[in-house]
UniProtKB/TrEMBL annotation:
Catalytic class of the enzyme: oxidoreductase
Source organism of the structure: Polaromonas aquatica
PROSITE patterns recorded: ACYL_COA_DH_1 (PS00072), ACYL_COA_DH_2 (PS00073)
Family note: Belongs to the acyl-CoA dehydrogenase family.
Signal peptide: none
Domain of life of the native organism: Bacteria
A matching Pfam family: Acyl-CoA_dh_N
Location of the Acyl-CoA dehydrogenase/oxidase N-terminal domain: 5-114
Lineage of source species: Bacteria, Pseudomonadati, Pseudomonadota, Betaproteobacteria, Burkholderiales
Keyword annotations: FAD, Flavoprotein, Oxidoreductase
InterPro entries membership: Acyl-CoA_DH_CS, Acyl-CoA_Oxase/DH_mid-dom, Acyl-CoA_Oxase/DH_mid-dom_sf, AcylCo_DH-like_C, AcylCo_DH/oxidase_C, AcylCoA_DH/ox_N, AcylCoA_DH/ox_N_sf, AcylCoA_DH/oxidase_NM_dom_sf
Name of the protein this chain belongs to: Acyl-CoA dehydrogenase family protein
GO MF annotations in UniProt: oxidoreductase activity
Domain Acyl-CoA oxidase/dehydrogenase middle, first and last residues per copy: 118-209
Known EC number: 1.-.-.-
Length: 382
């Protein structure tokens, strides 16, 4: 796509978000229910299949178009953006490394918005340490037997397919595409969350769960490598979600302060308010610039540089989201603390962006590793 085509696409998604998603965002959060209206809207615009190849029923959209879509949806509803991006992340290892047979079995239905898919890495013992996972897959006659547990899995219940990273030996891991009707698979208790309440979250429990041989993605001993490469792609999507929340909160703060009077003066005329809004705008635009630069780099190669920038973008965008949404609540005064105003929900939704997809503490370690170790980072190797 050329620049003007991206902007046209952005306008289309923004209109969809404002007209079809925003009206239901508060109810979705309040009732902790799947945003069915948003899913219908995605389907009408063919957004569900945006990143997938046309041969698999998708639109073949590049990473920038995906980032723009997530950003614009998150601007009005964090939960809806999560429901949109999780299937993209879940099926990335399959699309990149899986067999043609397995792709044809799974991707078209997800691309059409007929069902979801979920990404399954985190376990009760932690999420950032992929090599520390305990879920095991054992090769048996006809396929693989999986035992273990995954935690904090998004879109549970709506998803028909689950991309599960499991240990196949002491030092090797595989990615397995597990269908919701697989024998030995069950869903645990749904979590009661601070934010992102429209995306159902629960444990997945595997008790001698059987997966057919053909549902292993690529080489069953290269799953760790597949996931590391996938995270270079998914972190910009999570960054876009955080950026969208920050932009949405800034929008709300500007509208509110421009329309409210105090002491006989429009609130937006107060110098301290203007200073806060200026800092919020600077933070949002700085995060957007780094994210878009990251997308450009990731489009060139999936290497150490791309991973370093993905960690930078994830950290800056999510920290910006938390700061800007908190300031937006402050600028609303007492009303910002009320559920009747969107900034309260946006602040709760923003918090998790600093935690998932690798905590920001882990991201900073990855950035430091890039700065010290990666040729071309502009720093001497130490």
């Amino acid at each position: 796509m050329k620049l003007h085509e991206y902007e046209e696409f952005r306008h289309q998604v923004r209109r969809l978000a404002q007209e079809k998603i925003r009206p239901h965002a508060g109810v979705v959060d309040e009732e902790s229910r799947l945003p069915r209206d948003s899913i219908d809207a995605f389907r009408a615009m063919a957004l569900n299949g945006l990143p997938f190849p046309e041969a698999l029923g998708g639109a073949g959209g590049d990473l920038m178009s995906q980032v723009i879509a997530v950003e614009e949806v998150a601007r009005v509803c964090g939960s809806s953006s999560l429901v949109l991006l999780i299937p993209w992340a879940a099926l990335t290892p399959l699309v990149w490394f899986g067999s043609e047979e397995l792709k044809q079995e799974i991707v078209p239905a997800v691309a059409a918005g007929q069902c979801g898919a979920s990404f399954c890495l985190t376990e009760p013992g932690g999420g950032s340490d992929l090599r520390g996972i305990r879920t095991r897959a054992e090769r048996v006659a006809g396929g693989w037997r999986i035992n273990g547990q995954k935690r904090f899995i998004s879109n549970v219940g709506w998803s028909d397919w689950y991309a599960v990273l499991a240990r196949v030996s002491d030092n090797a891991f595989g990615v397995f595409m597990l269908h919701c009707d697989a024998p030995g698979f069950r869903i645990g208790r749904h979590e009661r969350k601070m934010g992102m309440r429209g995306s159902p979250t629960a444990d997945l429990i595997f008790e001698d769960c059987m997966v057919p041989e053909h549902r292993v993605v690529g080489d069953p001993e290269r799953g760790h490598d597949y996931m590391i490469q996938t995270l270079t792609y998914t972190r910009p999507l999570v960054s876009a979600q955080a950026l969208g929340l920050a932009q949405g909160a800034l929008d709300e703060a500007v509208t509110y302060t421009a329309g409210r009077d105090q002491f006989g003066t429009r609130v937006s005329r107060f110098q301290m308010v203007r200073g806060m809004v200026a800092d919020m705008a600077i933070a949002v635009e700085s995060a957007r610039a780094l994210l878009y630069r990251t997308v450009e780099i990731a489009g060139e190669s999936n290497d150490g540089r791309a991973r370093g920038f993905a960690s930078m973008a994830k950290t800056l965008c999510s920290d910006t989201a938390m700061k800007v949404t908190t300031d937006a609540v402050q600028l609303h005064g007492g009303y910002g603390y009320m559920k009747d105003y969107a900034v309260e929900r946006m602040m709760r939704d923003a918090k998790v962006s600093q935690i998932w997809e690798g905590t920001n503490q882990i991201q900073r370690l990855l950035v430091a590793k890039y700065v010290y170790d990666e040729p071309g980072s502009g720093r001497a190797r130490v």
